[in-house]
């Protein structure tokens, strides 16, 4: 469901009026971690349905091939940059600097806020043991956090209607969905009207990182823009195609778009 009305009506304070940056057809919000958490705090207690998604180079590649996924990104209430590819694209295409925000950046602040505001959280995604371990680690790491329920992303023992009924009965303020792109975004779009949670948030591999099945990227690797290389080294069997083919594909598309837009901006061209 798209945001409507003024910033105040959508739950954003005047101090939180963040700029949109269009990256390859998707409006990405230029906000920082504190701004993201402030927005979630406001939305989570409103009687409206908001959907939060993210983009990185892989997402933008997928959206270029999958028009349904692209439309879902366009229709989301909030899309933020989850990878350095989106940050680079914003700068080269529009000269705008935006923050890269991953779950590692916002998780602590979100959980502390959720405890203070007594928000209920539901975890949906990953393998059964992964999501259960994620719950245990969150409850151990953040005493007082309110996990209203969990379910794996494969629905191994339940049908989709049962899962949706459980989510409804749990009455979460925030539903985290981690199924991978674009499966999680398509699932959210197909089921959003039946999910009463005010905030529905796609979180990718967050449960795998929480459970320890996917290693957390060292801060210094992240600082020098080599998170993708770290993930490739840690899991080459699953990541080689995404990074060794996907990254060059993204860069070629980006440079072509930059060249095309600069050509159109030359004097005498319309």
Spans where pLDDT lies below 50 across 5 or more residues:
1-10, 12-16
* Whole-number tally of structural domains: 1
Query: How are the strands of the biggest sheet laid out side by side?
Result: 4-3-8-7-5-6
**Rg:** 19 Å
How many beta strands in the DSSP annotation?
8
Instruction: Report the structural category.
Output: alpha/beta
Largest sheet: 6 strands, parallel
Secondary structure: elements and pairs:
Blueprint: E1 19-23, E2 26-30, H1 33-43, E3 50-55, H2 57-65, H3 67-75, E4 78-81, H4 84-94, H5 103-117, E5 120-125, H6 128-141, E6 146-151, H7 160-170, E7 174-178, H8 183-191, E8 199-202, H9 206-211, H10 219-223, H11 227-234, H12 236-264
Helix pairs in contact: 1-5, 2-3, 2-12, 4-12, 11-12
Description:
- The protein has 270 residues and is an alpha/beta fold.
- The protein contains twelve helices and eight strands.
- It has helices spanning 33-43, 57-65, 67-75, 84-94, 103-117, 128-141, 160-170, 183-191, 206-211, 219-223, 227-234, 236-264; strands at residues 19-23, 26-30, 50-55, 78-81, 120-125, 146-151, 174-178, 199-202.
- It has a six-stranded parallel beta sheet with strand order 4-3-8-7-5-6, with helices on both faces. Strands 1-2 form a two-stranded antiparallel ribbon.
- Helix 2 crosses helix 12 (236-264), helix 4 (84-94) runs parallel beside helix 12 (236-264) and helix 11 packs antiparallel against helix 12.
- The radius of gyration is 19 Å and the shape is globular.
